[in-house]
Amino acid sequence: AELMSEEEFAKVRIDERVWLRRQRMGWPKYIHHGHAFGGYWERFGETHPEFFNLLPNGKREPLVHPKYISMCVSQPALWQQMVDDWKAKRDENPGAFLNVNACENDTDGLCMCDECMAWDVPNPTDEIDFENRRAVMAENFKTMAGKDYRWRSGIGTVSDRYARYYLEVQKLAQEIDPDVMVCGYAYGNYRKPPIATELNENIVLAYVPGFWYPEDRDVLASRRAEWMGWREAGARLMLRPNSFLAGFSMPYIFAEQFGHEFKFALENGMIGTDFDSLTGMWGAQAPNLYMLGRLHARPDLTPEEVMAEFYAAFGAGGPQVREYFEHWAAISAGIRPKLEGLAWHGLAGIIDEVYTAEMFADGARMLAQARRDAGDDEASAARVKFLRAGLENARLTWEMARVFAREDSTVAEQVRAGAELGAFRESIMTDNAVNMVVANWTEKRYWQRWPTAMLQDKQIVDSLPVTWKLQWDPDEVGADEQWFADDLDTAEWLSVETDRAWEKQAVGEAWRAAHGKDYDGLAWYRTEFTLPAELAGKQVWLAFGAVDEGATVWVNGQLAGAHPFVEPDDWTTPFLMDIKPMARYDAPNTVTVLVEDRSGAGGVWRPVLVVAGR
């Protein structure tokens, strides 16, 4: 909604679906899969805690968010509930739901109950003390849990546990349908094939490899060995990577290597795919997307033939376009080692470090030559122009990132850089060169992108301090006790910063150490600011970069307004608070923010500005 009209967004979605259908993507035979237990904690957290992971702290509870809780897969009552749910859906939709969805939530297998751990088998490729896993996990959990996922590594590979679980669910469901399929994942710490458990062809597993390309040969060889290990164990396989999440809106190219890995899976028993991670950066990453689509439509082609076909579409400009993308493929291979350990969107956070002006200048020169070579061929010229839009978007994004990376950059400079990028995107809004929604979502995680309309015709007066005061309110008494009062004594309040969530700061770590988990609930932020006398009589606002999840704001003890958490992205959304009625110019102003955070990260985590009407 911040980027395009409903009509523009609808056009982009239609274009996307047309492309998918042209590549023969869809589901001629659909296997129900995807994280199966996202709503189970709400349904059964109180009545059936045995369904859920037993953590090293002795509790069966979510560690971060209910949708990321792992299951106690050795629990027969859980199997029965899954089969009951499947049967209910099957009865409502005869002919559908041919399989039971047994896919774990988006997490490793974490349950440490005796039954689950008894199902595990030592894996010779794990570097763990298998016999002492429980003690190691307990110690890791005590020192790392909540801020570092590496504590999970102590449990080792749990593939035999999950393989046995799939078989138990299948056995139970076969009482209803002897031919039933069970779909699961080969993912996280159960991605490696089982050591001692035999499966069968009605166990269909979606294999989720590591998502980065380009990749070293040894890593690719290990992925292939994992694929073949599951196949040899008797399961049928789907390919379900997250590879096309990588790259942000940069020209990050890995087409041919991916093509060969896709062909390997196809030639070794692949029965289907799920590529739900198509970021759609067509102008910057066209070879990757073309390879993906074309091999679905024409699996008989080799990756080299696909690429030759792609470059031929640029006519006489094709050789130069090939040089252009080979330029970026070489750069991508050099960047790849720096992505190790980062989240799938992590490239966005380091683009100012790994790209240079010369790289973009060389790319622009190559595309300019491709345009000249295309001559009067209008179709080829238009395709080169499309690539040029993707390159310019990448360059402007990089320029914006550089501004934010500078310690001495001002808010005004940051706003201008974002506005320049936004203006360019306005000019190519419906060309499909850039996936505006994905770009915006990612950028909001790394930079304070102010909507152009919010600050248009406004003067940026000042930024509020980064360091504020904080008071936890687990009993939710602050409103009744008027913690927003102008004259409140806050000498005993804690210190917090407003450039990141409280979980990522000392104050959040102290809460976690004392209570065994991150703080979720109400918390109060407070600071002071002054207003110059010349603003008296003008319209004045506080502009909040973002509050996770919802916020209520008081200035000088008076309610200014609220920004509730209603839409899924409200925790990332900038908002204005009109403070003219309660602002003062002869003494410091107090601002108090009641933050409501019920899950995940929380707090005032983006800059707060004072802005005024011009």
Question: Could you explain the architecture of this structure?
Answer:
By secondary structure, the chain is an alpha+beta fold. The chain is 38% helix and 14% strand. It has 18 helices and 17 strands. The strands form four sheets. Strands 8-7-9-15-12-13 form a six-stranded antiparallel beta sheet, with no helix packed on it. The chain has a five-stranded parallel beta sheet with strand order 1-2-3-4-5. It has a four-stranded antiparallel beta sheet with strand order 6-17-10-14, with no helix packed on it. The longest helix has 28 residues, at 378-405. The chain starts with 5 loop residues before the first helix and ends with a strand. The model has no long low-confidence stretch (mean pLDDT 92).
The unreliable regions are: none
* Gross morphology: globular
Distinct helical segment count = 18
Average pLDDT works out at: 92
Report strand %: 5-15%
Q: Count of DSSP E strands?
A: 17
**Which strand order do you get reading across the main beta sheet?**
8-7-9-15-12-13
Helix fraction? 25-40%
Structural class: alpha+beta
Major β-sheet annotation: 6 strands, antiparallel
How far the N terminus sits from the C terminus, by CA atoms, comes to 27 Å
Supply Rg: 27 Å
